[in-house]
Amino acid sequence: MGKQSNETQSPVSNPTKFSILNLIDLSNPNINQSVHLLKQACLDSGFFYVINHGITEEFMDEVFAQSKRFFSLPLNEKMKILRNEKHRGYTPVLDETLDPEHQIHVGDYKEGFYIGVEVDEDDPESSKPFYGTNKWPAPDVLPGWRETMEKFHREALEVGKAVGKIIALALDLDVDFFEKPEMLGEPIATLRLLHYGGQISDPSEGLFGAGAHTDFGLITLLATDDIAGLQICKDRDAKPQKWEDVSPLKGAFVVNLGDMLERWSNGVFKSTLHRVLGNGQERYSIAYFLEPSHDCLVECLPTCKSETNPPKFPPILCRDYLSQRYNDTHADLSIYKKQQS
């Protein structure tokens, strides 16, 4: 798996170690083996690799190349497609603050671009918080860019659904549990391109590529370049917290569980704290956040509760939980209007 357990130095010279993650092969005909490995990972770190997922390395390389083309544009060109209230479009450096307790004065040193499920403006569904039309670079500025990202969005959704089947079996549910219309039949699926500009992180000064956080939804698929930076903390309550580096793995997705799956599983499966530390090198990653539909009620699964183990979280609608988390972590759009006026 390309992992080493020996001690090494992190980008900010704090002693860490490389985390050893389970590897799930989606082409493996032995589904029971995949279920066992995934369940073990979900109980331990909440992170694992997925390989042989059906997206070719050649196409993945093309998506990264197109991402770099966008982030190489002048800032004024990128700001023409600034994110809107539906979280579609460009997010500038410092727009997001994932760890406000430790990032009092600055946000994350990364820029991004959100692409969601395309819903026409005249569709009644477009009134919902995370549905709507996407924002795109002009075709004459980046020809072929939209087509590449739309194709990747479709293919990543199929990977996410395949992982969802294994998760369902690991929770003693029907294999198609997450395929229901109110879940991944009509998902809130968001592709986010990310670029870390080469700043050096320093947690003691509150400087991070991405501050410590858990993801919001069901699962996240993450493709990265070969630059390290992702770290996980298996025990968020430990004092001091212990951070482990996650190695990039060519052609693989790093998959992690989100808060909604932790709520569904009654805390059995972990939504693990993670962050990104910059080491002075530019870094690119591609995250695909997979959430259920707006109207999905996230509540403890019947297989994860008992008289002696009652639900630990109250039921909540997906749209309400996501809206609150996005509002808590992103800058108010009015600040950009003031800057441009």
**Remind me, CATH topology?**
Jelly Rolls
Cα end-to-end separation: 52 Å
**What structural class results from the helix and strand content?**
alpha+beta
Going across the biggest sheet, name each strand in turn. Answer: 3-4-12-9-14-7-6-5
**Alpha plus pi helix count:** 8
CATH architecture call? Sandwich
Shape: globular
The proportion of residues in beta strands is 15-25%
Mean pLDDT: 90
Integer count of domains: 1
Q: Helix content range of the residues, please?
A: 25-40%
Largest sheet: 8 strands, mixed
Radius of gyration: 19 Å
Are there runs of 5+ residues with pLDDT below 50, and where? 1-15
List SSEs in N-to-C order. EEEHEHHEEHHEEEEEEHEEEEHH
Domain Fe2OG dioxygenase: 187-292
Protein name: Fe2OG dioxygenase domain-containing protein
Family: Belongs to the iron/ascorbate-dependent oxidoreductase family.
Pfam families: 2OG-FeII_Oxy (PF03171), DIOX_N (PF14226)
Give a summary of the structure in a few sentences:
This protein is 26% helix and 21% strand. It has 341 residues and is α+β, with helices and mostly antiparallel strands.
Description of the structure:
- Mean pLDDT is 90; it is low at 1-15.
- With 341 residues, the protein is of the alpha+beta class.
- It has a single domain (7-340), classed as Sandwich (Jelly Rolls).
- The N and C termini lie far apart (52 Å).
- The strands form 3 sheets. An 8-stranded mixed beta sheet has the order 3-4-12-9-14-7-6-5. It has a 6-stranded mixed beta sheet with strand order 1-2-11-10-13-8, with no helix packed on it. A two-stranded antiparallel sheet has the order 15-16.
- Helix 1 (31-44) packs across helix 4 and helix 2 (57-71) crosses helix 4.
- It is built from 8 helices and 16 strands.
- Helices cover 26% and strands 21% of the residues.
- This is Fe2OG dioxygenase domain-containing protein.
- One of its GO terms (molecular function) is dioxygenase activity.
- It holds the Pfam family 2OG-FeII_Oxy.
- InterPro entries: DIOX_N (IPR026992), IPNS-like_FE2OG_OXY (IPR044861), IPNS-like_sf (IPR027443), Oxoglu/Fe-dep_dioxygenase_dom (IPR005123).
